Amino acid sequence: MLDKNGIAKRIAREVKDGYFVNLGIGIPTLVANFVREDIEVEFQSENGVLGMGPFPFEGEEDADIINAGKQTITTLPGASFFDSALSFAMIRGKHVDLTILGAMEVSENGDIANWKIPGKMVKGMGGAMDLVASAENIIVAMMHTNKRGASKILKKCTLPITGLGCVKKIVTNLAVLDVTPEGFQLIERAPGVSVEEIKNATEGNLIIKGEIPEMKIA
Questions:
Q1: d(CA 38, CA 17)
Q2: Cβ count near 198 (within 10 Å)
Q3: Which of 27, 42, 45, 133 pairs as cysteine with 67 (C-beta 3.0–4.6 A)?
């Protein structure tokens, strides 16, 4: 199965030349490290940055340049900084081509829960609800199961919902899944992972058609 970097590498293959991309907190922030060098992509962070680059090397961090998750980042030539009002105008105006989010749960009809676990301290939902309400192309990066081994790919979400019916694709440490009207369609499996393992780790309706190829993440 994949680690977090492996998930980010696979999602980086979904990023196309000329895209404006919003990266959510967690695994999605790693995607900027793996985008092909022969394409031009603008990464946007809702705290007011356009033109994010990979994470800085140790010792080269600038504490004044951070993403929405308070992590230090680099910026590419031509990058710009602006206030949150302009940042959310970009999001609400549908000027972002691809949104990549982390999640705690996704349901088989594309609902996402990614901002709160009842009883646990959270910093707030951030821009999550604006992103899911405005984005037309959402890919979720997440682990397939929780630390207890229970599925996070569900028939119905059990945690507070961030957005309804908005997720298009999910990349986990086990599989790539498309969200369809019939349920989760298995598109690819992680290297060394069997279809049976994915079935056992998925609570929601899993659709399997034909031979399922292994992911290409190189």
A1: 8
A2: 23
A3: 45
Q: Which amino acid is at 78?
A: G
Look at the pTM and tell me if it is higher than 0.90.
Answer: yes
Classified as helix, coil or strand, 188 is: strand
- Where are the chain's structural domains? 4-207
Q: Is there a catalytic annotation at residue 46?
A: yes
Kindly give the confidence (pLDDT) of every residue in the chain, 218 residues in length, as a single tens digit, with 9 standing for 90 and above: 899 999 999 999 999 999 999 998 889 999 999 999 899 999 999 899 999 998 998 999 999 999 888 899 999 999 999 998 999 999 999 999 999 999 999 999 999 999 887 777 666 667 888 999 999 899 999 999 999 999 999 999 999 999 999 999 999 999 999 999 999 999 999 999 999 999 999 999 999 999 999 998 86
Domain at 4-207, CATH homologous superfamily: Glutaconate Coenzyme A-transferase (3.40.1080.10)
Asked whether the beta carbons of 24 and 213 are under 8 A apart, the reply is no
- Choosing from 40, 46, 136, 203, the catalytic residue is 46
